[in-house]
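Working notes for the structural subgroup meeting. M.R. asked for a predicted model of this chain before we commit to crystallization trials. I am recording the input and output together here so anyone reviewing the notebook later can reproduce the run.

Input as submitted:
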Amino acid sequence: MSASTLRCVRVKWQNREAYRLTNGLVELVALTGGGHLPEFRFVKGSGVSSANPLWTAPWPTIDPQKYTEREHAERYGSRGEGQLLGGLAGHNICLDYFGAASKEEVANGLSFHGEASNRKWIPQGIKVTRDSAELTLSVDLPASELRMSRRMKILPGESVVRFTETLDNLKQADHYYQWAEHVTLGSSFLNAKDSYTVIPAGEGTTDPNGYDEGKELLARGRKFRWPFAPAAAGGHIDLSRPFARKGKGYVTSQLLQSTGKGDTTFIAAINARLGLLIGYIFSRRDFPWVVLWEENAAIEAKPWNGRTQARGLEFSNTPFPNGRQAAILQGSFQGLPTLSRIPSRGQRTVSFCAFLAELPQNFGKVQSISTEPEAIRISSRRNKSFLIPSVGLGRD
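Returned structure, recorded in token form:
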């Protein structure tokens, strides 16, 4: 892959301001509205399926900072959820709380999943050299007095995007926060016949709060061993398979296991018919849980309208998307704290990567993913494996 194919350019995505980062093999689109990442795919003409695994809402979206209740509540719902849902696309970040704002916070202008997903991100720099292409965006969070920056970097010939995210505490007081990378996959990539999810998890727990309007697929507040969770109607559901029963939804939390050097772990989803895999590799110290959320045409409220299929694989520092107060009251879960602390005037940086892979024919079901100094290794249950180039990733 020629270094000349490295680019970062300003584009429009569904009439929203965005940037496209590419190396000629894969491309990532980043929105300034909410910092959402709506597309990550192989480039058309690369010889691999160019399907976008990330979820696209079945409703027209807007930049969330443009939301007003007077103008947009009829389409997207009231501010508590409507501001987020109006702009939601693909992979978003939940900070500094994960879930609903309190009624007092909503009354003072906050929405679901925190400020980072609901404010405009500002371009801080584009850097393109022979060796890499980078885009950096940042966002100020005035209610929490935090600042987030995200650097996205791509190298020639790799189907990998490297993320470095830095959180700054701008105030004198320490701050306790929830942080989740909310990766949502869509039904154009996932289906019950061809698709499955791979998570290196042991113990899981179903959400004690159930699901919208009592439409939960799973029994509430029950422990299980991944991937077989207790169904509300009896029996068990294999959560590795998406969209088991239409009209139902659920939320579960899975405690991740380390799978490689430096306490790394991963999440992945595969469409076997397309021979396409999307995955993320990150540190378990930063994100010890993955929250699995599935909406399968269950929610009737606007803008869902009982017609949306989406699956969230949300790697997180907190076990459930039930808001900051619930996490504070819970204190710890499975032996780990349910919030993280950033000290007065302090800074916290995390790194992770997203990657795509074409599966070889007759490879079998993916079982594990690990990093090596110059590659990501993907292994199957048939004792087969292959490598994705990722220079230096295993040494980061």
